[in-house]
Amino acid sequence: MTRARVRPGPAIVHSGIGAIDELPELLRRDGVTRVLWVHGAQALRAATPFLPDLGTVEIIDAGFTSECSPAEIARLQHLATARGADAVLGIGGGKVLDTAKAVGHPLSVPVYLVPTLVSTCSGWSAVSVYYDEEHRHLGHEIWDTPTRGLLLDPRIVFDSPVALFVSGIADTIAKHVETRAAFDRSDSADTLTAFGGLAAARCGELISRHGITAVDDMRRGVRSDAWTMLAEACVITAGLVGALGAEAGSATAAHPIGDALSAFAPTRDLLHGVKVAYGILVQLAYERRWEEIDRMNELYAALGLPRSLADLGLSVQDPATLDTIAEIATGEHSSARLLTPPPSAADLIATMHALEVRQSRLDNVVLAHHPLAPPVERNIPMAEVESFTLDHTAVLAPYIRLIAVEKGPRGDAISNFDVRFVQPNEGEIPTAGLHTIEHLLASLLRDHLDGVIDISPFGCRTGFHLITWGEPAVADVAHAVRESLAAIATDITWEQVPGVDEISCGNYRDHSLHSAREWSKRILSQGISLDAFSRVGV
After folding, report:
1. Is residue 216 domain-resident?
2. What is the rounded CA–CA span in Å between residue 465 and residue 453?
């Protein structure tokens, strides 16, 4: 009979197309009248098209700062108490969902979770992982109270960045690698623990079989069976490992090593799963599973996961780097101590040396990443740029706007157009979809408009600069853009998207034809105006 303490999963789970539609009835049955919404801005935009009307339930829009930190949890708990919230709804990725749990459970109110990413098992797990405002790991907390409801809707999560899916896959590999030895040692008569072990093995099996295909399908905009299985594995199956496996389902060495990488500037801002992926290889090396590392290398290269310290921008030749990783990963409260035998700092240093020697024959990997560029402060004189003098609150997107016509020394004219697809400061096209639209417009526009020099996306992701020879009419540019978007929305297949491999693209993993299609349809449905400040020719 099972004696181990089982960590509860969600009391109610809806997974599949339309899962979010169950939210109003779930709140009604639970008698919820006032719910605290915890969400990031991008997460809410991803979910908004699918969120149902909550009827008479009052929404307290609390937002989210950026970290599951003690300060943010305290802020949200104060708001929930002051406004009399009788439930918490988390909409977002792992940090948001962990925060929602940390806010609601101590207040003894039900917590409902809507993932917008499949990058962690936070939607299932009864754990909140804490960081400070600089994203330094502070620890975690395990909750006795189960989450009231998990609503995993593929329509919401499929359009998320592919890199975050890759991060989730790496985190799910860790569920298998980190717990295997403990499950092998556990009492086979402990039924629930045994099921936790089966869940961990299933994580490894699904990723080995379908990992590369699932990621490629997501890049191509195909919501395939492989993608669906991996998405549920990252959230649900991975969550079952800790929920049923109890102590045997705990992290061991891979996660502490990944957390230790946050101590270095080159790796601090890397995705969680990318850092854990290197920890997985170190743990496998410590366990002398060299053949498994060799099998992992192909998967890692295809997904953009690090196979060496060099891939992470670190050097095995730097003793301070190895010392820091080893000391943090084997600290007093580290889960690496759950390994048998527990590694010392010297053991981990020797293991990393052996691993790096073995991996030195491999080519470098371009890491999966989700670009989040912080603003750059400049204190030097800068030329005035027309785009920055435009009143972005006065325009009405979508539109085509002639910015300027420049004349060369021999009288040649070059026109610069503002091709605005999204209303400024009210939304943005996700990077993967924008990237794919850019590649397609580069080709399709030339079929409908003479003299195209370049089409380049705005950094704000609300549209494009179009540069042409001559002085084409705005109406002709609008016609060419409409025809191109119509082809993207209905006709283009993944095989027709140019420049989606590592030879022809500088970030080939960050593409989504599905996102490009959906945004093209949305832009066309709104109509493209011939005037930036009024709706003309729509």
Report:
1. no
2. 11
